[in-house]
Amino acid sequence: MTSVYFGPTNSGNQVGINQGTIHLPPERPETPPPPLSTVPFRRDPDFIDCGSLLDQIQEKGSTQGARVALVGFGGVGKSQLAIEYCHRVRDRSPDTWVLWIHASNATRFEQSCREIADRAKIPGRQDPKANIFKLLHNWLHNTKTGKWIIVLDNLDDDHFLHAIPSTQSTLEQDHSLPSERSIWSYLCQSSIGCVVITSRSRGVALKTVEDYDIIPVEPMDEGHAISLFEKKLGAQPNRSAITQLVTALEFIPLAIVQAAAFIKQKAPRETVTQYLERFQKSDRQKINLLKYEGGQLRRDPEAKNCILLT
């Protein structure tokens, strides 16, 4: 038998010819992180608490297996309410997982689930054949995980949520469960978790929550609209022009934020009065102004310009 010499500077485990099995030490299990938040938006210091909406979310979301839906047309502040609610939950209960899922389509939904799995270090997530929805389901329903809240943001079209994933038949390994399952079925009720949905569609919301768990979100009243505008732009000398502008914007929070950001960027060349005059001049001018998307740091960048749609 010929020996092999690796040189004096070589060290470690070396194998020349092996006719048996090499046993590698098992991978050390990852240490799971403490409960965390995956909310992708910072808290808004200018948030305006309009009445009892946050209290309603807290009340409905505190029951076992809670499902809550915030429903209203684009720009009324559904996602902003959800963001503020999530931050308040973390302030009040740091041991609660707060998880955010972009639910506008199937691709973004799955991406969010994979991000949660990575952040929470859910075992099995690195297996390319793993069913990420099943892994997340098992983790959420494990009492060792603890309490959690999931936000499904912008669930306006739910067809993908109730469809069977195309890879389901090859991924499903748990024979104690039905062989065909929709994505939504993996988020079925759990006594330790709460799901909050934001949607423009009451019909979509009714497929996931009870009617009494829908919280309508309406435009602001005049006082709150003025307060939001002044928080974003600063105190202005012409209060009458501000009142007229927020009225022309129909008290829609996102439109108010966009207008304030536009004026602030153009100042001192642009004033509230000048913006109002341009806004009221023609539909074309109105559309051009509403296309401006500044000041939307706490909004999904892939979402359509919902103010124009509204």
Q: What are the main properties of this structure?
A:
single chain, alpha/beta, Rossmann fold, 2 domains, 5 strands, 9% strand
Q: Can you offer a commentary on this structure?
A:
The protein is an alpha/beta fold. The protein folds into 2 domains: 53-216, Rossmann fold, CATH 3.40.50; 222-309. Helix content is 37%, strand content 9%. The chain has 12 helices and 5 strands. The chain has helices at 53-61, 78-92, 106-120, 132-140, 168-171, 202-206, 222-233, 239-248, 253-266, 272-281, 283-290, 306-309; strands spanning 67-71, 97-102, 148-153, 193-199, 214-216. It has a 5-stranded parallel β-sheet. Helix 5 (168-171) links the parallel strand 3 and strand 4.
How would you sum up this structure in a few lines?
The chain is α/β, with parallel strands linked by helices and 310 residues long.
At the fourth level of CATH, the homologous superfamily of the largest domain is P-loop containing nucleotide triphosphate hydrolases
Tally of extended strands? 5
> How much helicity do the residues have?
25-40%
Shape: elongated
SSE order: HEHEHHEHEHEHHHHHH
Strand content: 5-15%
What is the count of helical runs? Answer: 12
According to CATH, the fold-level topology of the largest domain is Rossmann fold
Secondary-structure blueprint of this entry?
Layout: H1 53-61, E1 67-71, H2 78-92, E2 97-102, H3 106-120, H4 132-140, E3 148-153, H5 168-171, E4 193-199, H6 202-206, E5 214-216, H7 222-233, H8 239-248, H9 253-266, H10 272-281, H11 283-290, H12 306-309
Parallel strand pairs: 1-4, 1-5, 2-3, 3-4
